[in-house]
Amino acid sequence: MHVTLRQLRVFEAVARHLSYTKASQELHLSQPAVSMQIRQLEDDLGLPLFEKLGKRTALTEAGRELYQYSRSINRSLQEMEEVMQSLKGVNRGRLHVAVASTVNYFAPRLLAVFHQRYPGISPRLDVTNREALVRLLDNNSIDIAVMGIPPTEVEVESEAFMDNPLVVIAPPSHPLVGKAQIPLTRIGNETFVMREPGSGTRQAMERFFNEQGLAIRHGMQMTRNEAVKQAVRSGLGLSVVSLHTIELELETGRLKVLDVEGFPLARKWYLVYRRGKRLSPAARAFRDFVVQEAPQIAAPVPLPRA
Ligand code: PGA
Question: How many angstroms separate the alpha carbon of residue 204 from the centre of ligand 1?
Answer without folding.
Answer: 9
